[in-house]
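Box 3.1. Reading complex inputs
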Amino acid sequence: MTELIIAGFGGQGVSVAGFILAEAAMGLGWTVTWFPSYGAEMRGGTANSHVKIADGEIASPYVTKPDYLIILNETSLDKFEKRLKPGGMLVINTSLVRTGRGYRKDIKFARLPATEIAIGFNNAKGANIAMLGAFCAVSRIFEPEYLRNAVDSHFAGKGKHNPKNALCFNAGFESGMVIYEHMQTAEA
Amino acid sequence: MAKVLMKGNEALAESAMRAGCRFFSGYPITPQSEILEYMSWRMPEYNGECIQTESEVAGINMLFGAAAAGARALTTSSGPGFSLKQEGISYLAADDIPAVIVDVMRIGSGLGDVFQGQGDYWQLTRGGGHGDYRTVVFAPAGVQENADIAYAAFDVAEKYRHPVIIASDAAIGQMAEAVELPERKEHDIGTGGWELKSRKNGEEQRHIVNVYYHMGADRYPTFLLDKYRRMTAEQQRWECLRTADAEIILVAYGISSRVCKQAVKDGRAEGLKLGLIRPITLWPFPSRAFEKSGPQVKGFLSVEMNILGQMTDDIILATGGRYPVKYYGEFANVPDAGVCVERAEAFLREIRGKI
């Protein structure tokens, strides 16, 4: 079972990013659940979605101790960092975290300036997609081509295909790969 | 058919239309609004009518009209909006009109809040409106079951000519899971023989009369009792998990039952013999599931998202008072699997201490 939480500002696309991951995992035959935060959440407030991916039946859809945290802003980091499993992986958007902020010592990191990456492609709303790219590189759950296509087909299904999403995904993936290779070297 | 990833609310809406539902009238309220939203664009593709009504009261009464004409009709709401529909549900029951009503439960009395709850249990299972009636109440525990029950609910309603309620909760409505949607079918609105419609030349004059006047005070109670007896005998549905050797049996429905499945697994890993009875119908309560309880059962622990432990009444009735019954109730939060195990363990210690 892989459990993850994606969190950020409302409007950063954390719900849709989680939904795409769940859709992609379902496409590979896994059992999935996706649960959004809702209700009093609003644009500018915090939002999150919970995703579980498993071989068999999933009991509760709530993620209490995630294996992965994909965090798009500092408020969400403050809220969720303590929940990450020891040894778990934090994928963090450094564009929206104060320089010099400390992190837990017992976890792994993938840091990338996802908002700047997205703005660089003139696709400011694509920071979530860059984060998915980095997650793809460090988690090894999906082949990058597969997940990138899952992103595109999700938006195409809504009549919102955007070729810049693939660019954001690739840039995020490359940032993630640097970290992944560094981790492999460190472990070896 | 390929599986799709859908929210519980959306799967329910799509599946109802595939069952032949061509009339929806409802009013937005969190956490139910996705049903109305989905219906608003999807229903025209099925050549049906979706009306966002001026109130919940209008929603249930428009449904009354459509259902009386033989249409498969749906209205949905939550909490305060569901309360507003009770008068209409009582009228549906009194007039033998089949229809489906959904309550996507939220917490609290009055306005409450938008988070998941299971506080409507008594209202759902005792007949929430005035008078002397009950309705079949289904409690789906996942997105697939939301779809399956929405598909089957119209058949059940028509079988007894009686309203049927589906009671999900905010968690089941909001979460997404893979779902295999049923085949689309059409419902012929004139086949029941009882529907209101215009009279063609040469056809016998039809009358709309009060059922009670029509049958008379002697036959009417017998007719009603027979209907409720049949529903009680034929509609009990449940799922059992590891109850054969369980010492403490958890009883939970909806999202709470999902957590309890985890608790059964976790408890057993620690050597605690837990089982689960998951009612799929809240009324008729699945008493038959409890009749099979073996001599090793020490007690039943109801796990619910309300503070009064509303379902414990029915567990006591179903077990004839032969077992200790306790509950673990949460408010606003979904029950926690770890707490389920702790409560079950403490309950077992307490029972053993008394023996």
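In summary: Chain A is about 45% helix and 20% strand.
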